[in-house]
Amino acid sequence: MIKRMKLKAHGKINLGLDVLRRREDGYHEVKMIMQTVGLYDSIDLKLLDQPGIRVETNLCYLPNNENNLVWKAAELLMREFSLPGGISIRLKKMIPVAAGMAGGSSDAAAVLFGVNRMFGLGLSMEELKKRGVTIGADVPYCLMRGTALSEGIGEILTPLPPAPQCAVLLAKPRVSVSTKWVYTNLNANGLRPEDHPDIDGIAEAIRRGDLREMAGRMGNVLELVTEKRYPVIGDIKAVMKKYGALNAMMSGSGPTVFGLFESEKAAKKAYWALRNGRLSSQVRQLYVTDFFNNREVSNGL
After folding, report:
1. Which terminus of the chain has a lower count of CB atoms within 10 Å, N or C?
2. Any idea which residues carry the catalytic annotation?
3. What is the β-pairing status of strands 219-220 and 4-22?
């Protein structure tokens, strides 16, 4: 039994996000290209003699109980396997919260992986994914990581070759967005053909290793809702493109915006333009990072 484990829970961006339809059960059928980035949360797991789950975070407004996905992930395995004792989870958040980067899902995925290893449960990655989807649709991808085509409600995953490496600038505006609100306000069945991004074209550009074509084909149908409500998203995209981004787009349901750059030098110019320009008061967090292409959590510890 492993007494302590430190993990990295990486964030993701969507190189393409399409919503195909709203299903009768209320869920939306999606088709997305998912990409892990270098920005990550740190998670420290420690076994306890006394029963229970203890969660500590570096952000005072995050829950430390069953409302936190890391708690749910630990509780899921501990209850299923009647595991002895308890576990302490110390979470240091670096991925922006409620930002369209699957930070919470990635944290949950890391805890599932960690508890499995620490208690020697012997669950395969596929078995962890089946359990993870009960916590959130993005959790299976966050266990897999890398570059992938995501379908269904997000749980049907097809690995893709690593995307062409580039510098990524992330900018989180000072607004909060509810994923539920975005999907509720998207008329999925009334979208025009031109509203749908070319997901297959993005995947083909990735297979060819063509960064410029991949960037040029990027699209996110949810921008129709989120950017309309929060124009600052479009303003940030415009600054990134002005300073050399091959393309800039909102990740997930937002509001985080990312730009892809051929060099870190160009990304840093855009970074300083956003930090020092007229949008500085409207941007909460800025990061320059890159793509992270390890296939599974176990490869990135």
Report:
1. N
2. 12, 138
3. parallel
Q: Is 266 helix (H, G, I), strand (E, B) or coil?
A: helix
Tell me: is residue 171 an annotated ligand-binding position.
no
The answer to whether 96 is annotated as binding is yes
Q: What residue type is assigned to position 232 of the chain?
A: V
Whole-model pTM: value is 0.93
Q: What confidence tens digit (pLDDT) does each residue in 286-296 have?
A: 999 999 986 54
Q: Is 106 annotated as a binding residue?
A: yes
Cβ atoms of 189 and 235 within 8 Å: the answer is no
Q: Which residues contact 188 (CB under 8 A, 6 or more apart)?
A: 19, 20, 21, 22, 28
196: tokens are 């749908």
Structure confidence by residue, pLDDT tens digits, 105-142: 999 999 999 999 999 999 999 999 999 999 999 999 99
**Beta strand extents in the chain (DSSP E only):** 4-22, 28-48, 52-57, 86-92, 147-152, 156-159, 167-173, 219-220, 247-250, 257-261, 283-290
